[in-house]
Amino acid sequence: MVGRKDEDLQDVTLLGNQNTKYNYQYDPSVLETFDNQHPGRDYFVKFNCPEFTTLCPKTGQPDFATIYISYIPDVKMVESKSLKLYLFSFRNHGDFHEDSVNTIMNDLIDLMNPRYIEVWGKFTPRGGISIDPYCNYGRPGTKYEEMANFRLMNHDLYPETITNR
């Protein structure tokens, strides 16, 4: 039989759990990982999270966004249900858009030490202005650091059609 054994997934406790607890306060401790079964290969994992919500730290008004997370894993990968619960924990957290995407990226770097990661937030307009912060990271001293610099310098040169607003 091909696939993972139960003992390979002992650290994954949320997936399949019918008693999910939703935390309404920022909580990176909910994040879980599992082992990358293809550590010898570079490949992207991309998450599209169209229902992200956080609060403006000044006014308390809700901010809505689609968060895009793309990463090249190394040894560990983030489990998707734990990522969903983590992103949900921003619901009553007050942070500016730029801080939110950097916090997400930093927490995921701390969690799984990826080779490369980028986080892009496309926030719906408030007051006639939308803010779409982008941040990335490539492991220092590697080709991924060069990749991060290139992608940052060339980011959004050709803006796509905006579909989340």
UniProtKB/TrEMBL annotation:
Q: Does the keyword Cytoplasm apply?
A: yes
Molecular function (GO) terms for this protein are:
preQ1 synthase activity
Entry keywords, A to Z = Cytoplasm, NADP, Oxidoreductase, Queuosine biosynthesis
Name the domain of life: Bacteria
The answer on whether this UniProt entry bears the keyword Nuclease reads no
This protein's major location comes to cytoplasm
Per the record, the pathway is: tRNA modification; tRNA-queuosine biosynthesis
Q: Which amino acid positions bind substrate, per UniProt? A: V78, E79, S80, H97, E98
Name the protein family.
Belongs to the GTP cyclohydrolase I family. QueF type 1 subfamily.
**Main function:** Catalyzes the NADPH-dependent reduction of 7-cyano-7-deazaguanine (preQ0) to 7-aminomethyl-7-deazaguanine (preQ1).
Protein's name according to its UniProt entry: NADPH-dependent 7-cyano-7-deazaguanine reductase
> What is the organism field in this record?
Alkalihalobacterium chitinilyticum
